[in-house]
Amino acid sequence: MTASTIERACAVLVVGMIGCGRPAATPDAADDPALAERAARLHEDALVVDGHNDVTTFVLDYGFDLAMDGSGPEKRDATLYWIRSLHWLLPEPRPEELRMDTDLRRLRAGGVDALFFSIFVDSSFVPEGPSEVGKARQRAIDMIDALRAQVDRHPDSLELATSAGDVRRIAGSGRIAALMGLEGGHAIEDDLEQLRDFYRRGIRYMTLTWNNANSWADSCYEEPHGGLTELGHGVVREMNRLGMLVDISHVSDATFWDTLETSRAPVIASHSSVRSIADHPRNLSDEMLRGIARNGGVVMINFQDMFLDPAKSGTGKALWTLVRHLGWPDTPFELIADHIDHAIDVAGADHVGLGSDFAGGFNMPAQMKDVADFPNLTTELLRRGHPPETIRKILGENTLRVMAEAEAIGERLQTPDDPARARSWDG
Description:
About 40% of the residues lie in helices and about 10% in strands. By secondary structure, it is an alpha/beta fold.
């Protein structure tokens, strides 16, 4: 059993103890109407881009429709259904019975203009023999099709986006831009033609690994190669050529550094926080944050409490917290802003964004319980004295800049006179 599986199992034990009520607004905003008004105007005017949301898994597996109301304490907590090995213990839910933190109504309430829907392929789909080849790839394709069906079903609310320009246009029309990120490089099954096919299907970033290593890259939990293999370097180069963002969330430290050495385009960490506050292998060290800054990329802060809270960042600490409190206390909301502040201090304001991991986590902090709560973060950042221009960057402009730069580099790499075309992309 991997460390990540243990953490998820621990979370399942406490999910029934987690409070379901929505917290009150931040005291500072309530006590300072002028601050609240300025924050509301800023949030509404800014482009808000969430780098990672896992609701797509529930759309595919349980038929959840984004137009459904996922709120309500009487509903079944969707997080109970994350661990596949426990599914047989649980009654199959009807989609309208699922309590979700993401739906269209609350995305609008949260002022979210664009989000990367995660096309998540977990390690249970890794082929274990010739008869299973294609299983991971098909899982990803099915999830892409499920999201596209949602876009087709709700054209007044959603439109598929494949570029930074699309995001700005769609947001300007009052709709939500639906982007797609492939989570788990094993889905391409060592075939660069499959990578190209996913790009054609609309994938605009790929997380090189999930918690499992694949045949060409190490994860933060498994390190058989010592970083990227020769094929792994070829995957990164081909992603650059396509204009697809390279996502280093979930990878090992060695894979991270190999990727930065190889990539000609800025990289992203679509849902990672900072290790110096919460010492978790999924988070980034200060040296890694500085590396992303030199690369021109962006780290998107994860809202899950195990990646924010030093008291919960690791299986042992999580268990001790559970025992000590006889339950699972909420992580202070301010820790999200603490991680953002630290990333700004180390990497700079141009290299920080948001990757909530909503619908993929077992507990979110107080005042950040669902996608409607994004404005609370804008209020907190404004209260801390961040200038509006910095807050706009964090909310979405940094992510859109990196997208646009990756697109431009991809176009250059595909021109006949670019020297990089002489390289073997299949190498």
